[in-house]
Design a protein that fits this description.
- This protein is α/β, with parallel strands linked by helices.
- The chain folds into 2 domains: 226 residues, Response regulator (Rossmann fold, 3-Layer(aba) Sandwich); 132 residues, Rossmann fold (3-Layer(aba) Sandwich).
- It contains 14 helices and 18 strands.
- The strands form 5 sheets. A 7-stranded mixed β-sheet has the order 9-8-10-11-12-17-18, with helices on both faces.
- Helix 2 packs across helix 12 and helix 12 crosses helix 13.
Length: 386
């Protein structure tokens, strides 16, 4: 049943995007957008899709993306991968073999790994937001990453927690998939290195909605800190609410996700109070607020803050295509990627590219992350982590 749902979703978005593109004799640049548009992780997928459409409209209002002196209409072709490997493969196949897409943006690590070899074989450029470190390696000539995975930001985050918070007895909770298992192992290792006692490192199935049995087990160990890892936004809200209902008064950290607004909505301001979150944008940044207002105007809801880094990733991809001088020869994209840096983000920061030292290939955008605490129904920025 999934493929027909996918086909329907794509047909609707594809038609809408095509209608919005300006009339032009120049070849259209199609960008594939692959992410969870439904389900608990939908706030991420929708942020990517809507941010990408805002960028496309911006370029098209100027006549298109200028590549070698010719302005090309930009079209976003958006697929729901249902946060699954089969969904990702189905989306990839439709994008590449039916729609003729040569460039795409993929959110999830499991989706990225599912299409990594296919993209290399087909010479399709992929910009990923995935959290699996092995997405990049010295042979990943067509794979790029829009921000660092937990291997990059967990060390400074856990050091920050150690230096700024008194809690030392932690339970780690993550969904049971390739991305999260890697993150869970890394978090446990790093917590132990700086003196934390990891009482439990628990995995759960993504379909789980009632966490009381899990919480009964882990909270009986009397932790003073609960780390939600890479839990999806809506699920994070359920976990926070149910943990508080269970009587847990300790620190809750959403370390591998970015879900502070969903936690407030789903758990309520009272239960969300004091939750520490890693997130992708400073809500007080005027440039971000302006972009978020465009998003709200388009669909009538507030964005998840990954709107900023995800949209930056799409824009960096587009600017790299422009700098490469070709919309068809993806072997030139790497040259354009280097030429496009440093890149000015939505928030007005200049960011470069990295990855050579850790992953053997300089294909990662050096995007900033923030750490903050939920206070009085909003997020208060406590600092930056790189």
């Amino acid at each position: 049943m999934r493929v027909p749902r996918l086909a329907f979703f794509v047909a609707v978005v594809f038609a809408a995007a095509l209608a919005a593109a300006p009339a032009s004799h120049a070849q259209t640049i199609k960008i594939g957008i692959v992410g969870p548009m439904t389900g608990p992780a939908a706030p991420w997928g929708i942020a990517l899709a809507e941010g990408a459409k805002i960028l496309a409209a911006r370029y098209n209002a100027e006549g298109g993306l200028d590549v070698g002196g010719t302005k090309h209409p930009v079209q976003m072709v958006i697929y729901d991968d249902f946060y699954s490997t089969p969904g990702a493969v189905a989306a990839y196949n439709r994008l590449v073999y039916e729609d003729g897409v040569k460039y795409m943006v993929v959110i999830a690590g499991i989706s990225t790994m599912a299409v990594k070899q296919k993209a290399a074989d087909d010479k399709v450029v992929v910009m990923t937001a995935g959290y699996i470190a092995e997405e990049l390696d010295p042979k990943s000539h067509y794979m790029y990453r829009m921000w660092g995975p937990p291997a990059d930001f967990f060390p400074p985050l856990i050091k920050w927690l150690h230096d700024n918070r008194p809690e030392r007895r932690v339970v780690i909770v993550n969904p049971n998939d390739e991305t999260s298992r890697e993150n869970a192992d890394l978090a446990e290792k790093l917590y132990k290195q700086v003196g934390y006692k990891v009482l439990e490192n628990q995995l759960y199935e993504r379909s789980l909605k009632d966490f009381l049995p899990l919480l009964t087990k882990v909270l009986a160990l009397k932790p003073d800190m609960l780390d939600l890892g890479a839990t999806a936004p809506q699920t994070a809200a359920v976990l926070v609410r149910q943990a508080r209902d269970f009587g847990f008064k300790g620190l809750i950290v959403d370390s591998g996700s970015t879900a502070w607004s969903e936690i407030i909505k789903g758990a309520g301001a009272k239960d969300a109070e004091g939750v520490i979150n890693v997130f992708g944008a400073d809500p007080a940044n005027a440039n971000y607020r302006k972009f978020a207002e465009q998003y709200h105007k388009a669909i009538g809801q507030e964005p998840n803050d990954v709107l900023a880094p995800y949209s930056d990733g799409v824009d960096f991809l587009l600017q790299s295509i422009a700098a490469s001088g070709s919309i068809t020869d993806t072997s030139k994209f790497e040259i354009g990627f280097f030429k496009a840096a440093p890149f000015t983000t939505i928030q007005g920061e200049k960011v470069g590219i990295t990855g050579q030292k850790k992953y053997g290939i300089k294909h990662q955008v050096a995007e900033t992350r923030y750490v903050g605490v939920i206070k009085n129904g909003t997020i208060s920025v406590l600092g930056k982590i790189h």
